[in-house]
Amino acid sequence: MNDILANPFTNKGTAFTEEERQQYGLVGRLPAKVETIAEQSTRVLAALHELPTNYLKHLSLMDLYEENRTLFFYTVIHNITELLPILYTPTVADGIMNFSRDFKTPRGAAYLNVNEPERIKEALLAASEGLDDIKMMVITDGEGILGIGDWGVQRAWITTGKLAVYTAASGINPKSILPVSIDAGTDRQELIDSPYYLGLKQPRLRGDDYLAYIDQFVEVAKEAFPNVLFHWEDFGRDHATQILDRYRYEICTFNDDIQGTGVMMNAAIAAACQVMGESLENQRVLIFGAGSAGIGIADQITNELQLKGMSFDEAKQNIYCFDRLGLVRQNEEGNMTSGKVRYARSLEEFPEPLMDLSEAIDIIQPSILVGCSGQPGMFTQEVIEKMCQYNERPAILPISNPTLLNEAQAYEVIEWSKGKALCVTGSPSDPVEYEGTTFTIGQANNALLYPGLGLGIVIAQAKHVTDKMLNAAAHGIASLQDLSYLGAPILPHVSKLRQASKLVAKAVIEAAIEEGMAQVEIQDIDAAIDEAIWQAEY
């Protein structure tokens, strides 16, 4: 009976009533006062506010996660604007880097070891014991954590953070999500040399052996959890692309780093086009950074254009990708990823290398400039001014994370463009005052997307995640904004996460039904969404 206090899903702490304390053998084990969940949450916040750093606040929140899941989610949901950046990005990066030192509990994750493929099923079943029907897995091998790179097993906390955002933003039952950490080794020497490192001290597994392990994992997980959504997070560029290409039409799968960032940019660009009074078909998009995120953005834009009636060959003419070698051109094909090959410009069009971004803007005259390079300061005053020279309201979207890696800061974009630019950043940005107008800066936060996408997929029991479903998700996000006034944010504020998630879920379900991907019959989509939302209450 007393185990009720040790189980985070049943523990209510001081909220157990007198009758419950008698019933469950808790008399004498709790202070006398019986609190409401609101009173408990007030105490939690007061304690958090006493802590000097966001990382200490993060650790305190996650201790609560392990002690009382309902109170944790109640507190986060009712204080989402304040707590989201503490719970997840950017503060979770500190947790990842200090994981081996600060590890106390597994936080509900399944820890898989590539040296033990025969134990995959055992590990998944053990980690999911006591949970409900698993409808989603958030999976990482931690090779490509945005902004901080390869951290081996220490990236496990990215998956529990993602789970928490899923539930806080969309209301997916936390007992139906399983975080999964695949320890494939690490190429970070400081971890291998550390006496405290808790993961495998070996170079990363790669190549056919790695893919064979992933194949086995997928097969075992499908058998253990039918109709589960595989959400892949923070894999390295090559593996992320290989896994998505390999399984996209075999299982229900989604890669947040490739597809999620692309969908968010599609939403931002759709809103920007609305403000411009222009159609996407007439825009030139220059993507500065041609890694997995940049190619994912290009893919979502071309997907949007194809749904508007263009062929892929026509659509890709609107896209210009820039990497460390300059404009991506066909003569680099031997050293390029398959994604870069798709968007490489012809040598007939660009016979000479184009290395300078400012010069490229003069030649290409893009109306939309996206930054996902992780190279700070690359959108200089000259670059911003040239964007304004060729466009009345250019969209300038420096979305690299964290803030110190932004290609430009929001205040620079607004000031250098004299208030003309439509700006979205990857990290939270303060409002910018310019000539009497307050410019509220939208954040390309994938939390506006993936919780609603996941909720819609789970409700529809979708067979696959299609381009049309992703496109519908983008327009679900864009539909939330009032863009009628100067300075309006292009993307919704995180305070609107619940509203955004519902809109995205509805759009995704409608698209799944239309495409024949839904495996259940849904008569009333709004009612199905309301019924599926888990409530953080005792």
TrEMBL record:
Annotated SMART domains: malic, Malic_M
Keyword tRNA processing applies: no
Annotated (S)-malate binding sites: 401, 445
Binding residues annotated for a divalent metal cation, in chain numbering: 233-234, 257
Record InterPro entries: Aminoacid_DH-like_N_sf, Malic_N_dom, Malic_N_dom_sf, Malic_NAD-bd, Malic_OxRdtase, NAD(P)-bd_dom_sf
GO CC annotations on file: cytosol
Active site (record annotation): 88 (proton donor), 162 (proton acceptor)
UniProt entry keywords in alphabetical sequence: Metal-binding, NAD
Single Gene Ontology MF annotation: malic enzyme activity
Family: Belongs to the malic enzymes family.
Name of the protein this chain belongs to: NAD-dependent malic enzyme
Organism: Falseniella ignava CCUG 37419
Lineage, uppermost ranks: Bacteria, Bacillati, Bacillota, Bacilli, Lactobacillales
